[in-house]
Amino acid sequence: MPTTQKDTSILIVGAGLSGLTTAVCLGRYKIPTIVIEKRLDFLSHPRADGFTPRTVEIFRSIGFPASVIPERPEEFKLRRARVHSLIGQWFEEIPWSALDKKGNGGSESAVEYSPYRGSFTPQDVLEPILCKRALDLGVDVRMGFQLVDLRMDESSVTAVVSDPGREKFEIKAKYLVAADGHNSTVRKILDISRSGHGHISSIKSVLFRAPEVNPYLQKGITQFIIDQADLKAFLIAYRDGRLVLHLPTELATSEGVQRALIPKALGTSDVNVEVLGYSQWDMSALISKKFSSAGHSSSETPHTAYLPTEEGAHNLAWKLALVVSGISKPALLDTYDAERRTVAWLRHDQIFARSDYKTLQKDKGADDKPHVAIEDMAMEFGELYQSRGIIGIDGSFSPAKRPDEWAGQPGTRAPHVWIQRGGKTISTIDLFCENWVILSQDLTWKDLLNKTKENVSVDVVFEEVIQNEPVPFSFEEAFGVTPNGASLVRPDGYIAWRCATLPGDANDLTKALKQVVFAL
User: Fold this and answer.
1) Are 229 and 279 found together in one domain?
2) Going by DSSP bridges, is the β-strand pair 33-37/5-13 parallel, antiparallel, or unpaired?
3) How confident is the model at residue 206 (pLDDT cuts 50, 70, 90)?
């Protein structure tokens, strides 16, 4: 039986990208947090070969400058091709979707959607960066510590944990965040089922170096679909000189076979191959039927949240911080499931609307239509959140549109426009960190905000919007307001409320703040 106990506000199970992003966010809010990870060290396999501009926006907002997580060079884009082999015949370059062929995610718009580009930082490099930052912020990260069991009551979660020496102890937390991946122990203990397409394929990968093939990578293509009669595989070239060959499990019957297939995929045996490691993984499309669990059948308060992505972490962390700090009520946490579940299903369906997996769409009934691909700029920057914490959603909206189509619709990511601040030109994206923000060109909103402080305890910052003419995209156009209007943006950069013109008095703003902060 456990012999010792430690208390904390938040316990995070899993030190992958989602768990560590949550930890950094909570550390910035100074919320006591413990992270446990069953691995003794981070995996050396690079896995993801880069991150999108939206993910870079999140990392910038939580304090990672370009010197730590650099953006890809402007001239480089993520590109892929179907080939016989790397140095053999190249058949065609393949767009990510048919909508990409117009060159801007299917859009004819010349609007700039983000001030940032994506990053080529591989996952095995990024995870230690996130971990170090979490530690610097006072988060207790414990590698080699495994969740054994947990129980919940109406006020807390108690986790039974084993340390590297297999000694057991308990950690009692107000809330637990499950960031322990596809084979989540938390989900299994709580018997949370999943639904969705299910298993797609099983993959074995071999990581290696082969410097002699570097000249064939100078065209800028980094992903290769190997298409031979007896070899269907996927090759990724990382910016640091490493390559990984993904092979179907039924073909890669042993590590020896995997290594022997490298020259076949490269198109030459006249190469010095240095194998760095092997891995095996399953590709599945499954979504938990619950994104949070309450501690008792009579309690509506969720004490456990299930976290699949970095954007999910960004959505959840500020809500946990407000609730743990006593500023908001636990009902705010219900908006996590409401907002992220819709997005999760949208992304699930988009997998099978794209060319890669379109043939895997399950047979549809007479009334069912196949999933329709949504253009990349809409999926990247224009997903819609719907919950009680957002004012101005009636359920009739598209699940995703481009930011210029949304024009500041509450429930969407606040758009990027260039503004002046302190004599410098910055993006509105850079205003959204830990605080709530009201943006307006009219200073009257600053006075109205000051009058709300006695009734709403949350910190809200007023930002006067100043733009030098001409601008490619005006604040009024982007946010859908008049020169006297305002937009209220949450700490995760999503619009919670907007007022197209000045309200009658401060009561309107007070009422709006209470609804979005307390999810009334």
Assistant:
1) yes
2) parallel
3) very high
> CB under 8 Å to 343, separation ≥6 — which residues?
311, 383, 385, 399
246: CATH: 3.30.9.10
User: What residues contact 188, with CB distance under 8 A and at least 6 apart?
Assistant: none
For residue 70, pLDDT beyond 70: yes
Using left for φ > 0, alpha for ψ between -120 and 50, and beta otherwise, residue 499 falls in beta
Which residues are registered as beta bridge partners of 278?
A: 206
Is residue 221 a contact partner of residue 81, using CB atoms and an 8 Å limit?
Answer: yes
**What are the residues facing 82 on neighbouring strands?**
92, 225
Residue 103 backbone class (left: φ over 0; alpha: ψ -120 to 50; beta: rest): left
pLDDT one-digit tens code per residue, 221-274? 889 999 999 999 999 999 889 999 999 999 999 999 999 999 999 999 999 999
Strand order across the beta sheet in which 495-499 lies: 460-464, 436-440, 486-489, 495-499
End-to-end CA distance of the chain: 42
Q: Does residue 346 form part of some domain?
A: no
DSSP state, residue 445 = H
CA angle, 69 then 75 then 77, to 5°: 70
Q: Residue 504 has what pLDDT?
A: 77
- Please tell me the total count of domains within the chain: 3
Mean pLDDT score, 194-208: 90
Range of the domain at 14: 5-66+116-192+290-328
Let me know if residue 437 belongs to a domain: yes
Q: What is the pLDDT of residues 24-63, one digit of tens each?
A: 999 999 999 999 999 999 988 888 878 899 999 999 999 9
Within 13 Å of residue 208, how many CA atoms lie on the same side as its CB? 24
DSSP string, 382-430: -BPP-STTSSS--S-S-SB--HHHHSS-TTSBPPP-EEEETTEEEEGGG
309 in the same domain as 270: no
In three-state secondary structure terms, 249 is coil
C-alpha dihedral sign at 213, 216, 219, 222: negative
- Position 300 scores a pLDDT of 47
Among 185, 160, 165, 173, residue whose Cα is nearest residue 4: 160
What is the secondary structure of 201-222 as a DSSP string?
Answer: EEEEEEEEE-GGGGGGGTTS--
Element (H, E) at 510: helix 506-518
> Of 164 and 76, which is predicted with more confidence?
164
Residue 72 lies in a domain: no
Rounded CA separation 400/378 (Å): 5
**In 30-82, which residue ranges form alpha helices assigned H by DSSP?**
53-61
